[in-house]
Amino acid sequence: MHPRVTEIISPFTDFSMIPPDVLLAAATRGTSVHHICGAYALDIFINEIPDGQHGYVESFKRWFNRYVKEVIAVEFEVTSAHGYVGHADFLFVMIDGQHALLDLKTPLVGSRTWFAQIAAYKRAAIENGYKVDNAGTIQPDNNDGTARVKWLSDTKENELMAFNAFLGALNAHRYFKAR
Fold first, then answer.
1. What is the sign, positive or negative, of the torsion defined by CA atoms of 65, 68, 72, 75?
2. Distance (Å, rounded) from C-alpha 48 to C-alpha 167?
3. Confidence of residue 36 (pLDDT cuts 50, 70, 90)
């Protein structure tokens, strides 16, 4: 069984300064927002949106309605020949025709690990036969504002650097987790 991308990069994400109850609430909120936004993208009826999540969902919906032409996949698994598995959130055809792989993020503050994660997802998706022109993160606004998209191609660290950082983490994971 291959390790998950998020497991591989987890040593480089520090949540030690966040109280456990706050971290649990954020994880629960993130999972719920992912499912609701995924259902919206698939045109599945959404019965109820939990308190505190309306802003995220409305922000995503407005962005989706403005920029997405077609949904290719939602919450899909890809396995790489490099020996890892990823669970990407969305693959869309945008109104400009670009095939975009996007990972939904609900934290207010970004992390450099996100770009290594996205680069790994993009590489695995292409290996699995998906067309992916660009990849990035989408951060819906919790106050119902504009969702922010950060494309991997727009970062200081280009896609190759991000993927090489991921491969370094993958190799360290294999070395230290070897049985």
1. negative
2. 40
3. very high
Task: Please give the structure tokens belonging to residue 131.
Answer: 């067309």
Confidence band for 1, pLDDT divided at 50, 70 and 90: confident
Strand pairing partners for 93? 70, 99
CATH 3.20.170 for domain 5-177, yes or no, is no
73 burial (CB, 10 Å; 0-12 / 13-18 / 19+) is middle
> Helix or strand or coil: residue 23?
helix
Closest-CA residue to 79 (of 123, 38, 112, 138): 123
CA dist 58 to 41, 77, 146, Å?
12, 26, 9
Q: What strands, in cross-sheet order, belong to the sheet with 99-104?
A: 68-80, 84-94, 99-104, 134-139, 148-151
pTM over 0.90: yes
Beta bridge mates, 101: 91, 135
User: Where do we find the tokens 């480089």?
Assistant: 12
